[in-house]
Write a structure and sequence with these properties.
- The complex is a heterodimer.
- In chain A, strand 31 and strand 32 form a beta hairpin.
- Chain A is mainly beta.
- Chain A has seven helices and 37 strands.
- The radius of gyration of chain A is 26 Å and the shape is globular.
- Helices cover about 5% and strands about 40% of the residues of chain A.
- By secondary structure, chain B is mostly helical.
- Chain B is built from seven helices and two strands, in the order H-H-H-E-E-H-H-H-H.
- Chain B has a two-stranded antiparallel ribbon with strand order 1-2.
- In chain B, helix 1 runs parallel beside helix 3.
- The longest helix of chain B is centred in the N-terminal third of the chain and has 23 residues.
- The radius of gyration of chain B is 17 Å and the shape is globular.
- The N and C termini of chain B lie far apart (about 45 Å).
- The chains are: A mainly beta, B mainly alpha.
- At the A-B interface, helix 1, helix 2 and helix 3 of A face helix 1, helix 2, strand 1, helix 4 and helix 5 of B.
């Protein structure tokens, strides 16, 4: 008779290898347990706060804002960012390099103020590519520029606001995460698409004095890079498709390791910025309702700010006939600007050719080195919902900061941003234009507008529950449906490493679509995530939350159809032919629970 | 870790005790969590979530059984939640080798452990890969000590049968 016990034990390391344990992270456990700081074990730390590693799947840490003077006299203390604040990390670059930077800066729409001096921080060569990490301080920003040259080329520049150093005590700041360089040779099919890996991915940032090294965890394991000139640079060679750094830790000279706030770079179908997972503080109710505000100086055409260069206005595709425009600087310490313009808007060249109607409106754009972005609205719609235009943008792949920018009506006296990590950030507001940069790791966030008497007159919130994450494994659901004479629609869903799911939809003919979405592991909000194609609808597709067992389709002619979600709550349904024409089209979907209770209703018509 | 006696039951466990347990036994917890959940990333989340649950509920620890066994219960629950569907791989998909040759016992063992009923499989993991005694396994799986003995015996019988049935 076979004695299996020794066999199980002897083959143990082959069947179940003992891991190396380098992913142990007690700080992360404390965060997940959401312990108040008073319950945490006392420990000797050079910094006052335990800092968590924040990813799309990890709950927020409570972080207390620290009042630290910025500007003025900087007193050097041990283990701070003073080298950066004085603009002195590393060594100066060559005169030729500085001259090239100055010339490009002078020509740029979003010039860095203060004639910044470039510093060389780190140079490394890997896999035939040389990576140079340069840095500089410009006004209220600490910036790094990475240049890759050799068998793959590329460059990028990203900045962090100096004000962010005041928001917590983290000794390291990630400024760039998984920036892709070159083209690799690994491929993976996710959903309907085949993705190719880059040749390398770069994660980099700045470090305070007293930081010995930075540990980064990605799919290839844990990597330790020493700090140099108050910065760190990690190059992932030949990464896997969708490989991402998920944890960052700072190793201090004392031997201690602390987690570093960090937002995992999004990737893949439906990938979004999951943020910290917590909830922002701040006011929850509007105390005075204000609608239909104006900007008086624009109405009077006062020449505030500076004129707008033609090289900028030529890029405004939405503006077909500009009557008035000004370039505004809400924050003198930032290289970014806000343009406000008044005129006729409609998509060029169609509007100019009379192919589509142009309408009078107010437009605004955020202008920076990465380009510009914004939009236009009719004058009576700009402040219809809030007394400010609410939105944020992220410049490039791997960027760690979101820029909140836009216009505020004359009713607004000040703006503040409240983050899920407990920060309360005063938003620079000047000439009715605002601009603030907030670390992605601190989202979700809430922007609050106050009037001159301190009353809350507007609250805008960033999306939650977006879900994001790295899609892994084979599809868990594959659906297909065809409507004769219309087309075929397919839906594929995969799990994510973080425990959520993402799905992609691809259609042909009149059902042509290429879209996707994700839900997180703990899906709470928006229980019906359905879309239709084309118009009037023929297909209904998407996903509903697990508690919804029945869907009632309501049509414009008063009729209804009851259907059940398919596997795992996914929906791909072809409507009856009689309900595909105007007057009989689908107008709403109701989701009911098993006990018949209405869980949610999704209206498909505006208004 | 001091074994608590029934006569000196204290209310709750301290954060420091849980931290010490985490740091000293993390690798074991991760090893078993990986066996249950299917991959290292899910396993890490399971261990983290398990310890977080233990932290949040630390005042409910009554001292009957070791603290480690009590925490294992939370980690096993979390690992099961993080498991990828019905997939129950054991280590990686590549064949294990001994001196360059694949052993048929490895393959069979892997297949038969994966095929065990869940309780038997968890008992095997906790016994052989977490080195828990029967009492700790009983606490972790919330069953009687006698049931642990019977469960492991049944698992051994199934594994023995499987190995004997493999053509050699």
């Amino acid at each position: 008779m076979i004695d299996v016990e020794p066999l199980i034990r002897d083959r143990g390391e082959h069947l179940a290898p003992t891991p190396d344990g380098t992913t142990a992270d007690w700080d992360d456990v404390l965060v997940r347990a959401a312990l108040p700081s008073s319950d945490r074990a006392t420990r000797r730390r050079p910094w006052r706060l335990a800092v968590s590693v924040v990813t799309a799947a990890v709950a927020a840490a409570a972080v207390v804002a620290v009042a630290t003077p910025v500007g003025g006299a900087i007193t050097q203390t041990v283990r701070d960012f003073s080298a950066w604040l004085r603009g002195e990390p590393g060594e100066p670059v060559t005169d030729a390099e500085q001259r090239t930077f100055d010339e490009n800066n002078d020509r740029s729409w979003g010039a860095f103020p203060g004639s910044p001096k470039l510093r060389r921080l780190i140079r490394t060569e890997q896999d035939g590519v040389t990576f140079d990490l340069l840095g500089f301080r410009s006004g209220g920003a600490l910036c790094i520029r990475i240049i890759a040259a050799g068998e793959a080329d590329g460059s990028t520049l990203t900045c962090a606001p100096v004000a962010d150093l005041d928001q917590d005590d983290a000794p390291v700041r990630v400024l760039l995460a998984d920036w892709s360089v070159g083209r690799g040779d690994k491929k993976e099919t996710i959903g309907f698409d085949t993705y190719t890996s880059p040749r390398a991915q770069v994660t980099a940032g700045i470090a305070a004095d007293g930081v010995e090294a930075v540990e980064l965890v990605d799919d290839q394991g844990t990597h330790r890079v020493g700090t140099e000139s108050n910065a760190f640079l990690y190059v992932a060679e030949r990464p896997e498709v969708g490989q991402r750094v998920t944890h960052v830790r700072a190793e201090l000279e004392s031997g201690e390791t602390v987690g570093v706030p960090f937002a995992v770079s999004p990737w893949g179908p439906g990938g979004g910025f999951g943020g910290s997972g917590g909830e922002p503080g701040g006011p929850t109710k509007v105390e005075r309702v204000v609608k239909g505000g104006r900007i008086g100086w624009v109405d009077r055409r006062e020449e505030r700010g500076t004129p707008v260069d033609d090289s900028i206005t030529d890029k405004f595709r939405m503006l077909s006939d500009m009557e008035f425009a000004r370039l505004l600087t809400p924050d003198e310490g930032s290289s970014k600007r806000v343009v406000i313009a008044v005129g006729q808007f409609g998509l060029r060249p169609a509007a100019a050719a009379g192919e589509m109607p142009a309408r009078a409106g107010i437009c605004y754009w955020l202008v920076g080195r990465g380009g510009l972005g914004g939009g236009c609205s009719p004058p009576d719609k700009v402040f219809e919902r809030w007394p400010f235009t609410f939105g944020y943008s992220v410049t490039g792949g791997g960027d760690q900061f979101a820029t909140f920018s836009g216009l505020a009506s004359d009713d607004v006296s000040r703006l503040e941003i409240f983050t899920a990590t407990g920060n309360q950030i005063a938003v620079p507001l000047r000439d009715n234009a605002f601009l603030a940069e907030v670390s992605l790791a601190r989202l979700p966030a809430k922007m609050v507008a106050y009037d001159t008497e301190g009353r809350v007159i507007g609250i805008g919130e960033t999306p939650r529950d977006q879900g994001s994450g790295r899609v892994v494994g084979e599809p868990v659901v594959e659906l297909s449906a065809t409507a004769a004479g219309v087309g075929t629609l397919k839906l594929k869903a995969n799990r994510t490493r973080e425990g959520g799911e993402c799905w992609a939809a691809r259609g042909t003919g009149d059902a042509a679509v290429n879209t996707g979405s994700c839900v997180p592991k703990d899906w709470q909000k928006i229980p019906l995530r359905l879309a239709t194609l084309p118009d009037p609808a023929v297909f209904v597709y998407g996903r509903v939350r697990g508690d919804i067992t029945t869907l009632i389709l309501e049509f414009a002619d008063g009729s209804e159809q009851e259907i059940a979600p398919q596997e795992r709550g996914y929906v791909l349904h072809v409507l009856p032919e009689a309900q595909r024409r105007n007057g009989h089209e689908l107008i709403a979907i109701i989701g009911r629970a098993g006990n018949g209770e209405v869980v949610a209703r999704q209206s498909l018509k505006p208004g | 870790m001091r074994r608590r006696l029934d006569t000196d039951v204290e209310k709750g466990a301290s954060v420091a005790e849980l931290e010490a347990l985490y740091r000293s036994r993390y690798r074991n917890f991760l090893r078993v969590a990986r066996l249950i959940s299917g991959d290292e990333t899910r396993a890490h989340d399971a261990v983290q979530d398990g310890f977080a649950a233990a932290l949040k509920g630390r005042e409910s620890y009554r001292g009957t059984g070791t603290l480690e066994a009590w925490v294992w219960r939370a980690v096993v629950h979390a690992s099961t939640r993080h498991r990828h569907g019905d997939e129950l791989p054991l280590a990686d998909e590549e064949e294990s080798t001994t001196n360059g040759s694949v052993t048929s016992d490895d393959r069979t063992l892997r297949v038969w452990i994966a095929a065990l009923p869940e309780r038997q499989r968890l008992a095997v993991f906790l016994r052989y890969y977490a080195d828990l005694d029967y009492r700790a396994i009983a606490s972790a799986l919330e069953i009687e000590v006698g049931t642990v003995s019977a469960t492991l015996a049944a698992a051994h019988t199934a594994l023995r049968k499987g190995l004997q049935e493999v053509p050699r």
